[in-house]
Amino acid sequence: MNLRGYTRKLVALPLLLCFSSQVYSIEVGRSVTKWFPKQNTVFLAISDTLNGSTVSFPSDHNPAYHGKTVEEEGAYIMSDHNPAHKIILEERESQDLDDFLNYPDLPGSGFHIPRMDIHIDGGTFVADKKTFLKALIKIDGGGFYPDLIDSVWIRGRGNSTWNADDPYDKNPYRLKFRKEVSPFGLAKGKNWILLTNKERHSLMANAIGMKVAQLVQLRAANHIIPIDLFINGEYRGNYNFTEKVGLYSNSVKLTDRSRAALLELDTYFDETYKFHSSCYHLPVNIKDHHFKKGEKAVMLSRIQTEFDRLCSMLQNEGKISQLVDVDQLARYLMVNELIGNYEIMHPKSLFLYKEDFASSNSKFFFGPVWDLNWTFGYEQNRDYGTTDPEVNFWDAPAHFENRQFINDLLFKDESVYRAYCKVWKDFMEHHLQTLLDYCDNYYRYTKDSFLRNADKWNDGGDYHIVVQNMKNWLERRARYIYSHLNISASLLGNTSVKAITSVNGTPAMNEYEEIYDLQGFRKYVHMQKTGISDVLSPGIYIVGGKKIAVINR
Description:
Blueprint: E1 10-12, E2 15-19, E3 22-26, H1 32-35, E4 70-72, E5 75-77, E6 89-91, E7 115-120, E8 133-140, E9 148-156, E10 173-181, E11 189-195, H2 205-215, E12 225-231, E13 234-243, E14 261-265, E15 274-276, E16 283-289, H3 296-316, H4 326-339, E17 350-354, E18 364-366, H5 378-381, H6 403-411, H7 414-430, H8 432-457, H9 463-483, H10 487-490, E19 497-503, E20 506-507, E21 514-517, E22 522-525, H11 532-535, E23 539-543, E24 546-551
Parallel strand pairs: 7-12, 19-24
Antiparallel strand pairs: 1-6, 2-3, 4-5, 7-8, 8-9, 9-10, 10-11, 11-13, 12-13, 14-16, 14-17, 15-16, 17-18, 19-20, 21-22, 21-23, 23-24
Helix pairs in contact: 2-8, 4-7, 8-9
């Protein structure tokens, strides 16, 4: 829905909001749209009263919360948070706030980037990744997105991006609300992230990468909202606000998550529950689960059994369509190949989930994609859009320990490769230009914020060059990959296998013009029949839309 054409009057009854020494008030009969003079003020959630000392919440603590427990990534946190003092709204037009979802992800001209202010109780600053600090959050939606005021908890997050030696560095943060909220009109949720994009020229990388995931309809694709962040009144730079990946209503939303689990393949290997797979020796972290207390031990064992079954089936038989959602796997692999995300081959930040580990009929879903800073050529030269885009993603360096697993996911099961080609065909015909336009629109919307970030962190002043580099890189890369896919053969379905037997150096087959390997890369053009057996190594190839086996050499 286009918010520009929508207006509504919200009238607030008397309310006094107290936070530390600051007092916020709304007068009787005064409209919220006047309090925040925007063109499209749509939603306002008022905070709890935040007074008293700062309270920390150790992540390994498991106390009672007024007779309940608050789940926190498979563990628990303690909370003495007071019930919210809610504002009462008199709506002159009745409409559910869910109607505001799915608005355009970037506004047109005339809007400024949102501003987020986080006032931490007592004026303290985030110093570590374990201690949640109580705070007040205020979002100015920039005239396009809805404004919001609420209470929130904040702590540090991240691995390499978190600077433990300097809490005042441009560090990433984790936000947790007491109740589900809908910042910027996104799906309601409690758990959110502030991404820092600390690497030079990385301010657009996550936004563009996540846009690809949305365009190809990968499940639970994150949304990126660029913001100017202020903490305790101090400008902290340009950040990305996004969903926290997890089994949450605003991320991986499931009908029943009681027997579901989100897994992360990551060399950090730092979760409470983790194991290495029997095949491929993959580091598997159980990132999120909500098992009942009496079922936890059984379900954790079941997770390892099911993942080992997937790996064994892939490595030994290659047929995984009964265990994996092939369509989503194809979309997941397509996104990572296009943007050059070699992180999944380390592996790092490779997510997959299953809704019911107690059922043999429940399938694995790969995704969401995450941590896209080392993309667009950054892995090669520590810059974005400046390397040669015409490189074979599947021929990754041998030191990437997860390379074989990723290659096998695409090339061992024909149904995956066929689905993969279909995703690429649809993307090239319907979405490539949309992606390139998005790059321009994102820069236009954020360029003033980037300049402010440059003043603070010395990154953001030359993004008129960066955006052009990334667009050129993306277009060249997309066309290169697509030209090397064996689209016509992959869409034929099951094709017959014909053997080429070398007889006195002459292959027993007809002449074909082009030869592809099973990865879809064109090996030869206008190959003469008399030279095939002398050139090709034993293996299976696609020739003339059929699979051909070269043997007996």
